[in-house]
Amino acid sequence: MSTTAPPKANKAERLLVPATFITNLGNGIQLTAASYLVFTAQNTMLAVSWLMIAVTIPQVALSVYFGKLVDRFDRRTLAVISDLVSGVAAIGLPLWLALGGEPSTVSYVASFVLSISAALFFPASNALIKERIPEDRLARFNGNSEVAIQAGSLASAALGGWVIVWTGVDALFYFNSATFFLSALMLFAIGRRPAGSAAASSAATAAKATAKASGPKPPLARLALLYAIGNIVIITGNSIMLVLVLDAFHSNTGYLGVVDALFGIGALAAPWTFGKLSARSGLVKTALIGYLVWAVILVTESLHLYAMMAAIPFAGITFCVARIAARTALMKAAPEERTGFVFGATNAFGLAAGTAAVTGISLLVDATKVQYGFYALSALVVVVATATVLALPKSFLAAPAAEPEPEAVTPAAAAETADDAEAEVLVAAAAKA
Question: Is 250 left (phi over 0), alpha (psi -120 to 50) or beta?
Fold first, then answer.
């Protein structure tokens, strides 16, 4: 009895993973350096809040439009352009300071431009993944990509703080610019998409659309909501964790670095855990299990400083498992020709929902105590994740993690499918948010 070995990582996969690490390293360094520059110039927390708003608004406003743009033009080219624009904006900031520019103004402007570029990069990079990574490699790739994201974020926090102490903030901006140019070089090195693979993908997409026309349609909006829960957790969790450590536990900022490091250690184990769990439960159920267990751990973290230290690595594992599963499920369900739009709309909705959540929970914390913020976030994740999964069709939940390709290849697909209708729901939700 012969078995088919799983395909090996192709050139695109070998380059996209380190590019993901480098991009997140640069983004984290930029945010750290710009926040430090604004805070030292104005010495108010409100100034830092305005910087966060300048970073968030362009992505909420433009992600849907850029997602549609990505589906019309070459994804690799747009991702490279995004990195090049980011590199120029990053290096322009220290040059402007050297010419005597006002620090706060140039920080807001540079961060605003970088946010616009990020609004293009997110759908372009995810659509590029869908385009270049074989479907039976998506789960493994997303696991490695999540590790790269967490490692880049952690490295930026550690590196940013020490570089500011040793050399000052200007060196961070130059280094950040170099990371964007290096990422652009890696994306360019992927090469153009072979004409044969494009034709084969178009035929496969048409076959899938025809096969699905008479059967259950991928519930894109609900899968996107499952993935967007991660945005709510990241935006809100970082804010209340800061208040918990400094105010409730009366500890210093050094513990925040320890918390980040412990979370990152847990994230390294997430791909292995995800592989074991998804093989038995499937992608959607794995995402739900990850979110539910994470919510329980979150409540535990609020009890005591040492309880938080002990629990945070497991929070890293469970959150990243849920994130990998939700992203893979959405990426597999999204039609390749609309992947940019789906992820652009998901990014816009996730950021808007995260901003709304952090505002509401912040008001709750200010009126009561920070532990109630942890309880509220935990309850929110449990309710939204559970309701979303229960709303999915049973046939979709019962489907295996990797669906076989349809045998029949039909050259034409329906012009308007339920896939599009589900995706449009995301646009309306993002606009309302």
Answer: left
